[in-house]
Design goal:
heterodimer, A: 230 residues, alpha/beta, Rossmann fold, six-stranded mixed beta sheet, three-stranded antiparallel beta sheet, 6 helices, 24% helix, B: 79 residues, alpha+beta, Mth169, Chain: A, 2 helices, elongated
Chain lengths: 230, 79
């Protein structure tokens, strides 16, 4: 599986993402600078990493979404390519219009940096096929604008089409306001595109993918991708 | 030619920052504030000299970048 990680000024999870991809694929990820106008040939997966691209100016992800490389990423996604956006990467994907809804300032207005528990809501996606349905996994969150909102009609469509792969939950798998780190609507932690090949999520699977880091739950997301490409 | 752009949250979109400001005003004794909505103000210096063209262009900028029309409204004033 051939992968690329997009690097913006202010990205700070790009190397973690590259390590996560390399561990699963056995191949180094291509690091692609935001000013490039095209992606390397023959890519299977493009990852948009976390960070503070362009200092979060205007709106988180807004400037990055209009950078030259993102036109190529949108084109790649529209042709059926797989795209993973984590944290700031999720914000960028929403700003490009590849994913619907919006990410608002956390309801309690605080930056939140802690482990979150996620309930796996569907295994029907290349990103979640290595998990069990209703399994609870532990993945860190670190963000200030992760409060996902969608109007009633969109929310209904997302849920009806099984496009919410992860929800915040307690370690026991119950939904609660205290387990929801940012006030996201319906405890939504991630959203899939209509063709299920674009995933945006606030939690960082690339930060907990090695027992040495204290957990390994994020690794299976990357392994799932490799399996889906095989 | 200058354009003044106001970007505000749509009605119904929760504004926790505005709510925090309202709360802080209350702490200072300003009890008469029912609600606060926080927004953005941008001033653009334009090459265009035709007001109608300038307004159309700035509105396009708002749709494409300056506002997130999923959650925000904008107004454009040409001066």
């Amino acid at each position: 599986m051939k992968s690329a990680v997009i690097v913006f000024p202010g990205s700070n999870c790009d190397r973690d993402m590259a390590v996560g991809l390399e561990r699963a694929t056995g191949r180094a990820a291509n690091m692609v600078w935001h000013k490039d106008a095209s992606l390397p040939d023959g890519l299977d997966v493009v990852a948009i990493p976390g960070g503070f691209s362009f200092g979060d100016y205007l709106r988180c992800g807004a400037i990055a979404a209009r950078s030259p490389i993102m036109r190529a990423v949108v084109d790649f996604a529209q042709k059926g390519g797989h795209v993973l956006g984590v944290c700031n990467g999720f914000q960028v994907l929403i700003e490009t219009g590849l994913l619907p809804g919006a990410l608002m300032r956390n309801a309690h207005l605080k930056f939140v940096c802690r482990d979150a528990h996620l309930k796996v809501e569907t295994t029907d996606s290349p990103f979640t096929n290595c998990y069990q349905k209703d399994e609870v996994i532990r993945v860190p969150v670190a963000h200030h604008e992760g409060n996902y909102i969608a109007d009633g009609e969109l929310l209904e469509r997302l849920i009806g089409n099984d496009r919410v792969p992860f929800r915040y939950a307690t370690p026991e798998g119950d939904y609660s306001d205290t387990a929801n780190p940012n006030g996201a609507a319906d405890h939504i932690a991630g959203v899939l595109s209509e063709n299920r090949r674009v995933l945006g999520m606030m939690p960082h699977p690339e930060r907990l993918n090695d027992p040495l880091l204290g957990g390994n739950d994020g690794a299976r997301l990357f392994e799932g991708l490799v399996g889906a490409m095989a | 030619m200058k354009a003044k752009v106001h970007v505000t949250l749509k009605t119904g979109v929760l504004d926790p920052q505005g709510e925090a400001v309202r709360h802080a005003l209350g702490q200072l004794g300003f009890d008469g504030v029912n609600g606060v909505r926080q927004g953005k103000y941008l001033e653009l210096d334009l090459v265009e000299t035709d007001p109608a063209k300038a307004e159309a262009e700035v509105k396009e900028m708002c749709d494409k970048l300056l506002s997130n029309t999923v959650i925000e409204n904008y107004t454009v004033e040409i001066a």
